[in-house]
Amino acid sequence: MSNDLKSGSNLEKVLRSGHFAFTGECGPPKGANIEHLKEKMHPLKGNVDAVNVTDNQTAVVRMSSWAASTIMVQEGIEPNFQMVCRDRNRLAMMSDILGVYVMGIRNMLCLSGDHQKFGNHPESKNVYDIDSLQLISLAKKMRDEGKFLNGEPIDVPPKIFIGAACNPFADPFEFRVYRLAKKIEAGADFVQTQCIYNMKKFREFMKMAVDMGLSEKCYILAGVTPLKSIGMAQYMAKMVPGMDVPNELIQRLKGAPKGKAAEEGIKIALEQIEEFKEMKGVSGVHLMAIEWEHRVPEIAERAGMLPRPKV
Amino acid sequence: MIVADEKSLPEILDMIKDCNHILVLGCKGCVTVCNVGGLKEVQILASALRIGRKKDGRIVKVDEEILERQCDPEYVAQIKDRVQNYDGVVSLACGVGPQFLSEAYPDQHFFPAVNTKFFGGAVAHGIWEERCAGCGNCIIHNFDGLCPIARCSKSLMNGPCGGSSNGKCEIDKEILCIWDSIVRKKMASGQLNDLLKVMPIKDWRTARDGGPRKRIKEDLTK
Description:
The structure holds two protein chains of two kinds.
Chain A: H1 10-16, E1 21-26, H2 34-41, E2 50-53, H3 65-74, E3 79-84, H4 90-102, E4 107-111, H5 132-145, E5 161-166, H6 173-186, E6 190-195, H7 199-211, H8 214-217, E7 219-224, H9 230-239, H10 247-254, H11 261-278, E8 282-287, H12 296-302
Parallel strand pairs in A: 1-2, 1-8, 2-3, 3-4, 4-5, 5-6, 6-7, 7-8
Chain B: E1 2-6, H1 9-15, E2 21-27, H2 30-33, H3 39-55, E3 61-67, H4 73-76, E4 88-91, H5 96-104, E5 110-112, E6 114-124, E7 127-132, H6 148-151, E8 168-169, E9 172-176, H7 178-188, H8 218-221
Parallel strand pairs in B: 2-3, 2-4, 4-5
Antiparallel strand pairs in B: 1-6, 6-7, 8-9
Helix pairs in contact in B: 1-3
């Protein structure tokens, strides 16, 4: 990794200076309710290095991720703008990258996106003009070569810190580390993983990633989502494709005293974060507290992640 | 081949509600092979329409016929002398058939009796699956002969998404994750390296995105 900053984002600076990064997540509201959005994002302020702003996650239509990211910038919170390949062709992607850069957004996470069949408009046409790897390479070309896909020069190229997602738990497991390698080759500067519950499998995955030298080329942030209830754990285990929730964890939540399953879920997350701090190749944690943004300050505090570094 | 599926009887009855004399016209091409628009299906649909209208108290006269192909002006011309005898013609061909008919006989009404679904083939008796998206620039040699454009729900070019589970696609447990198949095939043959390069962004001009397409074979046009 060279010494020049690629984007100058806070997240990039935190990672570059060797701190253990801590990112959060905030889903925009199902409407134009700006107060609701501010209410959700404020507990994250100062408690994380950047906040992922989801892009019509689970294919449910919400306020656009770029607009919500812009509001975040205005509120003094650094967004990690998510962009999926489901809803935009390459023209819209490139123009949105330019647009978000102008609005002060410096991190972008490139994703395939959940298929629209899962969402609340399953009748819609999908786009998938390019895939998530190609989106990474597109953002890199715009930033480093200062060119559009067609080769034309960009008048002020967007300097974006480029992120990618990685799910070590989807199949085929043996290919997952190679897919990560491809994303890095395409230009990913940092990677946030899917929610990790199966620690044994994740250790195995990280060993392969470290052995292949991937953590030297790219910052890997481990994904953590605290389980709020037994129902949530069972739903994640059975209903969410590519999610691996071991039965022992569900049993542990079931064994918690009545009304204390959520606390047990937080304890599990804190134990995971402790392990990630020491795990070779892991540069930080991505906390996805789904509809639990108000609990982030407490989790950050208990995880020993505060105060966040000023770089 | 082109694979099609039957439209529902009420839908077809509604299309022909103003007709008293119709022709049900089959096609001996793809729709015969996929058991939706051949002679047998022409006869079944004709009977069903007669019965349906009889129940409604409005008798309809239904003639039956099948053409060699409805996507060829030469065969479409074979009904020239009688096509105007009908109030409407119900075509059991793929979406191409009723259009060639409409273009050849602008004064007649043509109704589609099938929904054209995809390019594919039979994987078992009575089961057809999609195989080709007709993108106009075949690249399946890069993927051991399996097409991610047509068969991955997201048309991904660089490997399986995070929703691949036990060889199945995240959108439906009945759908194969074609990327799982591609990866396993490459691993079994020791050629996984083939999948490690980032595939270039596709030029979709050769697909439907480039506008309606046309093929010209010069030597045949002279």
